[in-house]
């Protein structure tokens, strides 16, 4: 597994334009597979329009303590893009006036932003209904300065959503790096110890599963049952829900698909599994994604492809919910990842 | 080699068998779908059985399909390999148990 980001390695796929070229050429240009626009048009759902805003997802920076093989952010320790306190303040100002009921902090490892705790304290004062932090778990045990995070999350009633690709060490470490499984288990034990994930606990702990290779996630409920049974029996760990998320063909996962000669088969599988019912509930229709430098996107994936919102309000400093409403969602072939089978979003399946 | 009997992309065309015999084809796929639903056995257990049989039948399409199906269900490579050994054990056992027939015949014919 590479220990550096694509960007650090000067890989051409670190360039979003190059990724978009790949996604538009080849099997899609030759007509072998329909483009996303063609598929959505065939079910009379094009263009996809945004609905009222429900989720504000803020990316606090691309720095991460892990270098996961599938990462769509191309995150890693060598990434320097970190949200400044000034931009954070602009986000707080927006959170105070937005109608969104969910605030979703992501990264990288959002906890590595030096102003992370200040931001959580300020944002929690606003009293948003569901306040999510996407934690990779290993950050909690990676350094003493992060050991108190479970208590900190509890104090601010943060909803913790954590990545866990499998209930076995082998598959987890292969995707996320050696030692990740045991560190994740330790972090889950720490979260359980303060009350996270317990049945009937208000301290919500959900896990995110994404496949460790070129295949789609299986049935979300079936995977949740297996995860719960295995983690309970092997480690006495408890959690609430499992979100099964499809890997989208961008960034490091796209690099993997091409290098392993799985790209065409994977895209064919996504296209074959296209589900118009999933289109109705794709997350880009009720989400705004804010990048570390304050730009606005329809989703985190469009952020990584540098596809900004089609609206006059393009930056957090000029955030205008009215202007953003009913906007046309920017799409390309990567969007097939969110409409395959039972669909995929940051909250798992959508159908 | 430009021509082979098996083409991986043919698996995607499996449903087309219905084109030339609609009624029978549809009945087969309805039955097939029903068999793999959650029942007295879990869908996960059925997937492992299918993988083992795919190997004993030496069907490349089925092997591709149920390997991927297993991965999607979170089935580990160790579980998949054990399932195949179950199939292999039955295959070899089925060969060897006929040795008794050979022994019976020898005992009857040989002085």
Automatic annotation (TrEMBL), chain A:
One Pfam entry name: DUF3641
Gene Ontology MF: a single term: catalytic activity
Assigned keywords, A-Z: Iron, Iron-sulfur, Metal-binding, S-adenosyl-L-methionine
Domain Arsenosugar biosynthesis radical SAM protein ArsS-like C-terminal: 216-349
Cofactor field: [4Fe-4S] cluster
Radical SAM core domain segment(s): 58-196
Name assigned to this protein: Radical SAM/Cys-rich domain-containing protein
Organism listed in the record: Lutibacter oricola
Organism ancestry: Bacteria, Pseudomonadati, Bacteroidota, Flavobacteriia, Flavobacteriales
TrEMBL record, chain B:
UniProt-listed InterPro entries: AhpD-like, AhpD_core, AlkhydPrxdase/COmuclacdeCOase, CMD-like
Protein name in UniProt: Alkylhydroperoxidase/carboxymuconolactone decarboxylase family protein
Alphabetic keyword roster: Oxidoreductase, Peroxidase
Ranges for domain Carboxymuconolactone decarboxylase-like: 23-101
Superkingdom field: Bacteria
UniProt entry tagged with the keyword Oxidoreductase: yes
Cross-referenced Pfam families: CMD (PF02627)
MF term (GO), any: peroxiredoxin activity
NCBIfam families: ahpD_dom (TIGR00778), perox_w_seleSAM (TIGR04169)
């Amino acid at each position: 597994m590479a220990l550096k980001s694509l960007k650090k390695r000067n890989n051409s796929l670190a360039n979003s334009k190059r990724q978009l070229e790949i996604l538009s050429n080849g099997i899609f240009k030759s007509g072998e597979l329909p483009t996303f626009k063609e598929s959505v048009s065939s079910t009379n759902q094009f263009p996809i329009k945004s609905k009222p805003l429900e989720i504000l997802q803020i990316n606090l920076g691309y720095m991460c303590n892990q270098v996961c093989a599938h990462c769509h952010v191309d995150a890693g320790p060598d990434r320097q893009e970190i949200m400044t306190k000034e931009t954070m303040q602009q986000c707080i100002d927006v959170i105070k006036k937005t109608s969104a009921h969910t605030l979703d902090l992501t990264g990288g490892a959002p906890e590595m932003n030096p102003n992370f705790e200040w931001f959580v304290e300020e944002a929690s004062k606003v009293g948003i209904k569901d306040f999510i932090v996407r934690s990779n778990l290993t950050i909690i045990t990676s350094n003493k300065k992060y050991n108190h995070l479970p208590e900190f999350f509890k104090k601010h009633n943060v909803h913790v959503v954590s990545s866990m690709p499998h209930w076995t060490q082998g598959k987890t470490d292969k995707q996320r790096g050696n030692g990740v499984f045991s560190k994740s288990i330790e972090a889950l034990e720490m979260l359980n110890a303060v009350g996270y994930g317990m049945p009937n606990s208000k301290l919500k702990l959900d896990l995110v599963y994404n496949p460790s290779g070129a295949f789609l996630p299986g049935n979300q409920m079936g995977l949740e049952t297996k995860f719960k049974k295995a983690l309970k029996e092997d480690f006495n760990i408890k959690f609430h829900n499992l979100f099964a998320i499809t890997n989208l063909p961008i960034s490091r996962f796209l690099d993997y698909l091409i290098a392993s000669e799985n790209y065409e088969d994977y895209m064919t599988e996504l296209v074959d599994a296209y589900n118009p019912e999933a289109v109705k509930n794709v997350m880009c229709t009720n989400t705004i994604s804010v990048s570390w430098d304050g730009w606005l996107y329809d989703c985190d994936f469009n952020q990584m492809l540098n596809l900004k919102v089609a609206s006059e309000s393009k930056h957090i400093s000029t955030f205008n919910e009215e202007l953003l409403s009913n906007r046309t969602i920017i799409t390309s072939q990567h969007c097939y990842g969110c409409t395959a089978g039972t669909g995929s979003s940051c909250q798992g399946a959508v159908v | 080699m430009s021509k082979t009997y098996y083409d991986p992309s043919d698996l995607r065309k499996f449903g087309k068998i219905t084109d030339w015999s609609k009624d029978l084809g549809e009945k087969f796929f309805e039955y097939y779908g029903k068999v793999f639903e959650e029942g007295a056995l879990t869908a996960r257990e059925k997937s492992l059985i299918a993988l083992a049989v795919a190997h004993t039948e030496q069907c490349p399409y089925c092997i591709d399909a149920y390997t991927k199906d297993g991965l999607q269900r979170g089935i580990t490579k160790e579980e998949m390999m054990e399932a195949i050994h179950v199939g292999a054990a039955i295959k070899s056992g089925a060969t060897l148990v006929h040795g008794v027939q050979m022994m019976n015949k020898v005992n009857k014919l040989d002085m």
